Amino acid sequence: MAKVICAENDIRRRAWTGVALGAMTLLAACASSPNSLTDLTHIDTAQGSEENIASLTAVIERSPNDPEAYNIRGSAYGRAGRYREALEDFNRAIALDPTSYRAYANRALIHRYMGNQQSALADYNQAITLNPRYDVAYIGRGELYRLAGRTQEAFRDFERAIQLDTTDPRAYHRRGLLYQASGQHQFAIEDFTKAISLAPSQPYGYNGRGISYLALGDDENAFADFNTAIRLDENLAESWANQALVYERRGEPDKAARSYARAASLDPDYIPAREGLARTRNASTVASRS
C-alpha cells in the first residue's frame, strides 16, 4: 500500500488528502529510473558516444579555459554513465565560471546518480539562486524531493516549472505521478496527456496515463496506452506488466502470464512482474484442472 499526503495548491486542485492505493493500481507508475526522461536535455551534442567525447576533448584542448566546453563534455560523460569524469568536468566548469547555473544543475544530477543527495540539493539550490527562472533546476530539485518522499516540496517545484512555461515533459509527467499517488486521477491524466504531447515518442507518459485510466475503471483506454508504450519501446518491463494487468482484469490469465513473463525476462528484479507471473500461472493451473 502507498499513502501520500499532499498540500492545498489552488482552487482547481483542492487540498490533497492521504489516499491508500493498492499496489496493483499503481504498479510501475510511481517508479522512475534516472534516465526515464532524458535529464540533460539542453545539451544536444552530448550523446555519450566515444566519438562525441573525443571531439569534445579536442575542443577543450583548443580552449582549455572555456567553461561551456567542460559543461558539454561533462554532460556527454553523464549520458555515458561515466559519472566521476562528468563530476570533474562540472567542477572545472564552475571553477571557471561560478555563475554557470547550467553547470550547477548538471552537477546536481550527477550527484543524484551517485547517491550524493545533499550535494545534489545544494547544487540545485545554487542554480535556482543564480537563475530563479531556470525550469530545469526546479524539475531536477522536484524529482529529488519526490524520490525522498517530500511530496509537498516536489509538487511546488514542478508547479513552478510549469508556471515558467516549461516545454520539458518531465515537469508534467512527475506532477502527474504525484496526482496519481494521491488518487487525483483526472488531474494525473491531464498532466500525462500534456507530457505525451511534448514527448510523443516516450513511453512513460502512456504508462502513467494508462495506470490512472485503470484506476478509473477505463480498461479500454488503459490497454491502448500500454500497447502504445510497448510499440514505442518493447524493452521496458513496466509496459508489459501493465498490459498483463489488463489481461488479468479481463480474466485472461494465460495472456497475462505471457506478458508478465516478458516483463520479468526484461527485468528479473521487477517485483510487479514476478508477483503477477506467479499469480497468473497459479490461476491458469487452477483453470486447467477445473
From TrEMBL:
This protein's UniProt keywords: Repeat, TPR repeat
Q: Where are the TPR repeats?
A: 67-100, 101-134, 135-168, 169-202, 203-236, 237-270
**Signal peptide as annotated in the record:** none
Q: Which InterPro entries match?
A: TPR-like_helical_dom_sf (IPR011990), TPR_2 (IPR013105), TPR_rpt (IPR019734), Ycf3 (IPR050498)
The protein depicted here goes by the name Tetratricopeptide repeat protein
Origin organism is Chelativorans petroleitrophicus
